[in-house]
Specification:
Elements: E1 2-7, E2 10-13, E3 18-26, E4 28-39, E5 46-51, E6 57-59, E7 67-72, E8 77-82, E9 91-105, E10 108-111, E11 115-118, E12 122-127
Parallel strand pairs: 2-12
Antiparallel strand pairs: 1-3, 3-8, 4-5, 4-9, 5-6, 7-8, 9-10, 9-11, 9-12
Amino acid sequence: QIQLAESGGGLVQAGGSLRLSCAASGRIFSINDMGWYRQAPGQERELVAGVSSGGSTNYADSVKGRFTISRDNAKNTIYLQMDDLKAEDTAIYYCSVYGSTYAMKGWTKYQSGFEHYWGQGTQVTVSS
């Protein structure tokens, strides 16, 4: 299993900024893509921003130019810098990784298959 610990959510006024963090831990063998999703009340979960293991990034059109995703591979951590926040950014933000874990049998390390792992979510509320 890979555990994801999110932090940084909260209440902010429109035009303000927040920085979300997500640290992955556990028996991590490899992590490929990492990203942030969000889900507003009554809406489906949507991709906000993603970053590959090589550093390539992609963003939802609604956040381009305002949000920046970054990744620290040494710490298995991603960040989401959110600037110029708008009321429509209000949602629960979820961290997600696509990774594999390992198991030890004696001195041999075995890699599991890749799976999607999700954090518990952190609330972001933007007041207008």
